[in-house]
Amino acid sequence: MTKAADRTARGSVWLAGKGRRGGRGGQPSGLDRERITEVSVRLLDAEGLARFSMRRLAGELNVTAMSLYWYVDTKDDLLELALDAAFGELALPDPDDADEDWREQLRALATDYRALLVRHPWLSPLAGRYLNIGPRSLAFSRVVQRVVRRAGLPAHGVTGAIAAVFRFVYGYGTIEGHFSARIESTGLSPEEYMERAMTMVAEDPGTAEVMAESKELMAARGGDTVAEMLDRDFTFALDLLIAGMEAMVIRG
Question: Please, are residues 137 and 129 in contact by the beta-carbon 8 Å criterion?
Fold first, then answer.
């Protein structure tokens, strides 16, 4: 059995009551799951997923690595807890508020999710690895479903609409997060990085022709900063998806 299959077979930290325990009897003083999860998120933000380990976390908490196993069975359990904690940062609208436009609620949810993926680059691989059934993740999913239902789509189209919007956001936010990390590693500002990169690409014989063809589109894209350009592309793409949902409702 592969590691991935074994992980699936063993289930999730949120199943069989594992997610509700506060630690085992005789656990080290001064620790609890909330504290361990909080520090895990901070370490993942600072050092990334590849460098994260139980030993590194234990050092940050000034305890032995074995002490952590009073609270979780495996590192995977801890990563699931960190993943769900990150979802808790999302602001959730009231999907039953009749005075609120579902379109604006959907835009807010998508925009916040994009920002979360950029803020925590380690989140996207974990979201693809685990079941995403923690309480905060489920709360987000439930609100998304109820907001999209208000669009008036047929029942069989709701999950497809959700997939279209949030898989787009997942991809956009993941790539943007990697892009931001790459820029940060150079010590340049986003504008300096883009200017140097575009100059190199425009001057290289293998890529100059494509860049020349794209020059008009890049100029029309607008925006004085890299962040503004990314925001405009994201907003336009999201508007296209929402317009598509509206068109499908009219089609019936």
Answer: no
